[in-house]
């Protein structure tokens, strides 16, 4: 079953209050389906799993179990707090040539100052974990690592148990590889607060016309119920099949599973370079190639959408200006097309200054005006006061960082929170001075489509 064994390393971890050992062992496995590995953890690890695949499909990550968990409810310093803990934990790790390193995966909520009650109650403002069993697939190779972080003296027996369990999980995944999942059967579909949403768009447009802000993103929720409880692998399998052109992500915490298929990168850091993306301005896909092209051309020349887009470009360029030695921003947007929707898209990249890290970039970038607004502070308070929901992880940064500081965060849109037999889907859009309630409403219908396909709900035409 295994091609190559690596040695087990033990790394000392010292924090302010205690000393631990961090045991790591990585093996290379012949072939392994990421979804099947995720599903193999259904019994022992439901509630403690995560899944990630980048848009290019060159990097896939699955985690089962928590070797280490950060549940953090503080507000202002949450990005710094995660960074500090992760640095402490990984400071003594020495990079092994070509082998994946331990990865911290998780997300930050959209707005810790939003205290509206709802489906996200109990979810911490930052939630990250190092998996007990970590699968990394890259360059067509699959690696499974065991992580054990403990302050117990003699952990060899415990580690031996983990090896056994790892082999069982790999075996179960190889057996299950071709399993297919049924689409869930929907029993109800409810556009929550639709009227309030339409009124909010008018009100916020008014506030913008009165110069209270320049752009504000307003979102809404769609609630679905199903005949049976949906499992996370079942939901994820349909996201994987229906939305192959997007990032795929899934994060479990106890009974909650937040997952989605987003086209939007927040930031990626690789070997001292940073990559971000301005994604704002939207139109549906055409039914024919001609119609699709015409819609795209229209979008590239539409003033309202170009305005929505330009706020994002300015803000991301500004952040790169402050964190990079040099950086590039194309003059005009191009189109980013995924199955159900096309967006205006401007990629930004730069060479980082020595102090800039991925978590610092996430801290400065979030929320970009693609999900928050301009000016940021005013937009966030307008969202807090006017939106009928608490976004939780929707529209927020989700992703990973490794011990060397490489990593990637996406913006968690085109997403849904699954709780047993219920799902909450989220979609929003950028409101500017000349936004119109009904066309914003229609834009959200297009943005609900990816998750509606996944969950088997009705599709509005
Ligand atoms: C807010 C969402 O999407 C964002 C808003 C967009 C817009 O208003 O044009 C486009 C892409 C995203 O940055 C969403 O999908 O829910
Ligand atoms: Mg828009």
From TrEMBL:
Keywords, sorted A to Z: Isomerase
Annotated transmembrane regions: none
One of the protein's GO biological processes: salicylic acid biosynthetic process
Domain called Chorismate-utilising enzyme C-terminal: residue spans: 194-447
Any GO molecular function: isochorismate synthase activity
The UniProt record lists the keyword Secreted: no
Identification of the protein by name: isochorismate synthase
InterPro entries xref list: ADC_synthase, Anth_synth_I-like, Chorismate_C, IsoChor_synthase
PANTHER family: ISOCHORISMATE SYNTHASE ENTC, ISOCHORISMATE SYNTHASE MENF
Domain of life: Bacteria
Enzyme Commission designation: 5.4.4.2
Catalytic activity: chorismate = isochorismate
Enzyme kind, highest EC tier: isomerase
Family according to the record: Belongs to the isochorismate synthase family.
Iron-sulfur as UniProt keyword: no
